[in-house]
Backbone:
């Protein structure tokens, strides 16, 4: 009898607990739903400190598989504080190498039977994180990093010294450091940024002379951007 009573008590307690937990979760969902308009409205009205960038860059290739890259990217997002920006971006870049296809078929790697070119257009898509250091109203410093993916345009591969880069998704990383110079005393949000930039493109979806299919492009150069 005691055991049956104890089981009933436990069942009642469990039911009450589940009901309370369910009500708590429903209250959280209700609270989140009520807060959504307050989050979306500033973004729509522009009071959430929207900010945009357009950037030109050029990097010289490093290492064995050298490719010089020039490009233009744009980032759109929000300035969450005077020192931190976060957004998303897209760009168009052109990679150029100096590698020729061997004239002798016996010396040509099997994967070079696929069409390849020493100049290719590439499309990076990325998240952008930027940190500002110093007085936002005057000349200051910045650190920026773009992280995302990159694809080659067209069906041909990018021909490299020791392999080929395919059209599959590549990892894309582009950090930079530099100087921010406001161009308007009326609107200090407008500024020119001059920086030193490093670019990394890599994946194991490529081909090289060795058994490992990882191909990496490295480059170091400069960037010039305008923000508003």
Residues:
């Amino acid at each position: 009898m005691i055991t049956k009573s104890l089981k009933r008590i436990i069942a009642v307690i469990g039911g009450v607990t589940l009901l309370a937990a369910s009500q708590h979760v429903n209250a959280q969902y209700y609270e989140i739903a009520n807060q959504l308009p307050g989050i979306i409205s500033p973004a729509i009205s522009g009071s959430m400190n929207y900010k945009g960038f357009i950037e030109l860059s050029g990097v010289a290739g490093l290492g064995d598989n050298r490719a010089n890259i020039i490009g233009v990217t744009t980032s759109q997002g929000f300035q969450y504080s005077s020192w931190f920006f976060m957004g998303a971006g897209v760009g168009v870049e052109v990679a150029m190498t100096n590698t020729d296809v061997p004239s002798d078929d016996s010396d040509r790697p099997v994967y070079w039977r696929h069409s390849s070119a020493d100049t290719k257009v590439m499309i990076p898509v990325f998240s952008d994180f930027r940190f500002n250091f110093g007085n936002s109203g005057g000349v200051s410093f910045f650190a920026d990093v773009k992280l995302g993916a990159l694809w080659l345009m067209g069906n041909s591969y990018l021909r490299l010294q020791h392999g080929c880069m395919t059209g599959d998704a590549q990892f894309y990383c582009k950090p930079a450091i530099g100087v921010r110079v406001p161009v308007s005393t009326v609107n200090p949000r407008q500024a020119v940024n001059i920086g030193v930039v490093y670019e990394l493109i890599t994946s194991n979806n490529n081909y090289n002379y060795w058994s490992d299919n990882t191909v990496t492009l490295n480059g170091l150069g400069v960037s010039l951007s305008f923000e508003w």
